Amino acid sequence: MRSGIRSPMINPSEPPNKTVAVLINVPKPSIAKSYMTFIFALTAALFYGVADYSGSRASRFANSASITFFGQATAFVGIGIFLIFIRTPVMPLESWFWTTGGGFGGAIALVAFYKAMSLGSMTVIAPITAVIGLSVPVIAGVLSGERPSGSAWIGILLAVIAVALVADVLDKHDLPTSGRVIWMAVAAGIGFGMIFVCMGNASHDHGLWPLFGQRLVSVPTVAAIALVQARKLSVPKNVVLLSIAAGVLDTSANGLYLIATHTGMMSIVSVVVAMYPVATVFLAMTLDHERLHKSQGVGLLLAVVSLALVSL
Length: 312
Known about the structure:
74% of the residues lie in helices and 0% in strands. It is built from twelve helices and no strands. α5 (122-143) packs antiparallel against α11 (277-287).
């Protein structure tokens, strides 16, 4: 620009970076960040849903603890290999405590969940577990100082109603399968809630170390359960791929959840992730021909609405 001539569009008193932002109309970082958080959380929900279906199908042919061990061990080895080649700082001691809690809770949750899903209807057990799993991180997030917006609170309420409807818990044909199976689902939900809270509080600046720490606890815990229940850790050849898929997808979902909680509020992220039963129910209907009731259909529609409200 020539001396003595100034552009009328630029105020020289403003910082250059602010001027550039005005000229090229860059969106607010918080908006872009919230969309990325939503995408990460929604992808995590999809991965969780497919992982749950895979592990549950495999558990119909083998001990659920053995299936869980095989999948978790495979993911553990994969994470270890990545850490060898992708060097990142080891996470602090506090994060190790959080990941230990997440690993223990996750081990108990997966074994109980796969067992419940193998004994009962997937379209019932998965949503019941999600309701319990959703409540724990939402309460923890609010107690830690998170303040969701008004639309987000409406979305959270609708999400709880949606998951309950998808569970179809009041349908009489499902009552005979309650009792032991339902208690397994509740235990699994509490364990999943522990994972969400612990991983949400673990360090977000140390790459895959939180996932490594979680598996470092969950793998031996599941191995011990499998040895007590089945006295072996092997699985039939026909479910090897399902076991691997369950472990890899579950670990990938944990990683996406970790990223999402780094960019957004845990109380919001957990609501989106809690929609994972939609994927499980869809696969059960498509591949296993499980029947969807009217209330479950309404629940699925409410789930979509709740996701839209939470993402605002």
